[in-house]
Amino acid sequence: MKSSVIVFPGSNCDRDIAVALEKMQFKNQMVWHKETELPKSDLIIIPGGFSYGDYLRSGAIAGKSSIINEVIKAANSGCLILGICNGFQILTETGLLKGTLLRNKNLRFINKDVNIKVLNNETKFTSKYKKNQILRINIAHNEGNYFTNAKHLDEMREKNLIAFKYCDEKGNINTQSNPNGALNNIAGIYNSKKNILGMMPHPERMIDKLVSNDDGINLFSSLLK
User: Fold this and answer.
1) How many domains does the chain have?
2) How big is the CA angle at 94 (ends 97 and 79), to the nearest 5 degrees?
3) Model confidence over 82-115: pLDDT tens digits?
4) Which end of the chain is more exposed for a tag (fewer CB within 10 A), N or C?
5) What is the pTM of this model?
6) Cβ distance 127 to 121 under 8 Å?
């Protein structure tokens, strides 16, 4: 399976995701944001980091980069797109995903491991997980507070477009288990065709039990499947 990782000035998780992809035996290429053509790809990843130093607004400048037009074309043709953390923010800036990521409720940067629940395991991103499985995944963001309007929230519920929600270790979804104030504890969402996933947690950091855990591996093995 061929993958491409888009790299922006300020990306700091691009090598992490490359290591994860190579471990899972993807044939990966790194693509600089100024390129105007994408290599043939089954999966395009927009990694985490602080593209352009989060100047103006997280993901705002990166969303206007030269390569983004090609990413949008690929997405509209059905290519799988994964946006992690800043990548999720960039996807909302481009309009490929609805909603926005606001400042964390405590107005502070958060870097810690949290629990998330798999709400939909019937997609190409999550088929190797069990429904309602609880994962321990790292977050590291200042703007992870997902928000959208009531109409879109209803649409996501009806069409099962909410991928993950923040929860506690027993799977309870409540205010106490919400690290950033995200609407309905939302940690990740799909587009209507479910070929695009945006998520704030970092699955690429959870691929090795010696370093952390391997709760992120099945996202990549799902894609390979």
Assistant:
1) 1
2) 65
3) 999 999 999 999 999 999 999 999 999 999 999 9
4) C
5) 0.97
6) yes
Is 155 part of the annotated catalytic residue set?
no
Distance CA 208, CA 122 (A): 25
CATH of the domain at 100: 3.40.50.880
Tens of pLDDT along 121-170?
Answer: 999 999 999 999 999 999 999 999 999 999 999 999 999 999 999 999 99
Of 70, 93, 143, 204, the catalytic one is 204
| Cα–Cα distance measured from residue 65 to residue 43, given in angstroms and rounded to the nearest whole number | 19
141 catalytic per annotation = no
Tokens 């992690």 sit at which residue? 84
Q: Given 85, 93, 141, 143, which residue is catalytic?
A: 85
Q: Going along 151-195, which residue ranges are E strands?
A: 162-167, 186-190
For the chain, where are the alpha helices, taking DSSP H only? 14-23, 68-76, 86-94, 150-159, 217-224
Task: Domain of residue 90: give its range.
Answer: 2-224
Closest CA to 128 of 44, 43, 223, 214: 223
Q: Could you tell me how far CA 108 lies from the centroid of its own chain?
A: 20
Mean pLDDT of the chain: 97
